[in-house]
Amino acid sequence: MNSEFTPDEINCFALQSEAARSFMRTCVPKAAFLPAYEHKDVITHVELSLDGLILCVVSVDKVITLWRRVDGFGKWTKYQKFKGHSGAIWRVRFAHPSFGNLLATCSIDANIFLFLESPITKSGRKAFWQHQTTLKYYTSAILDIRFAPFFHGLMLAACTAHGHVIVYEAHDPLNINYFNLIYDIKLGTRLSTIDWNPGRYNEIPILVVGSNSPEVPNDKRLTVLEISTNAPTIRENIQFEPILPNEKVQCVKFAPQIAATYTKMAVATKRRILIYGFFFEKSGKTEKGQAMTRPPRLLGEICDDISSEVMTLQWNSGGAALSVMHDDGTIRIYKQTFGSAFVKIVTINPPSHLLQDKGDTGMPPNHVARHNS
């Protein structure tokens, strides 16, 4: 596979591998466990703000809990808890800090809620999160949402259980009370996960959408959408191999693009993770900027002999380390080495008392976060 890469691309692999080694020499993962009794039902999603200071937890019990980190990297304190939707909350996402402290939640009630944190006043009044606007979608439950990279403006994409990809845009980022539905793309199959290509300002915005429905053909498990100024384009000719028959796509996650000539994307199925590379070049067919002129290339595969299922993924800020969470609460961290191989460097197990709390069904207790879609 290495012979297919240019010398510049191979140099990028080497630089990222060295960066990963340096990063892991200086960083030792620490696990902090917050009291989950704040929620009375299954926790569906946990999201950390980009500055790492705010943690948001959502649950089937329709409650949103916000925690703030104090004393540097020490203690977490709860500073707000409130009811959000009329149905189970499925995902929560933070916007880029350039738009203020803004977060969005989606639910099976087919709504997206936007919350904004008010600033601390001169009188010393504490900051608090306040509901700003509701984006109503009447077709079906919304299962995932993502904010676009900030240089594309304040845009929010979502995918639904009935196979729609919807994109909202705030024409005035200073007034988030008014979002317009700019695209409603019907793909015709249940969609479970979505992510934006981080790219650069001169690249065509790209969305990748995944499906965890067992009835979807292999060539429809992952769909690439180019979001241009005229109309979105579905890249139907792109095939992601080697996704196997009946292999559900649990999560897709792009890595941050740090001075690289390509963008990495991780795709999680139940038992393995596939790493693809997206390459962008100048194309005369585009209005401006760079477009994806060749199909994504398989860079690597993580396939450990583990009985638990993969639930969600997260890259580190340099795009060289990948955290994988399994349905038994275990987190495994992999780093990229030269030649696109990923090596497991650490395993974080849940506390023993959580494992002892399992019932006769073998399912985790309610306070163990799961990310089923």
TrEMBL record:
Organism expressing this protein natively: Bursaphelenchus okinawaensis
The keyword Nucleus belongs to this UniProt entry's keyword annotation: yes
Keyword Glycosyltransferase: no
Keywords annotated in UniProt: Lysosome, Nucleus, Protein transport, Repeat, Transport, WD repeat
Matches recorded under SMART domains: WD40
UniProt family annotation: Belongs to the WD repeat SEC13 family.
GO molecular function: structural molecule activity
Protein known as: WD_REPEATS_REGION domain-containing protein
Domain of life: Eukaryota
Predominant cellular place of this UniProt entry's protein: other
One GO cellular component term: lysosome
A GO biological process held by the record: cellular response to amino acid starvation
Subcellular location, record wording: Lysosome; Nucleus envelope
Region spans: Disordered: 354-373
Pfam families: WD40
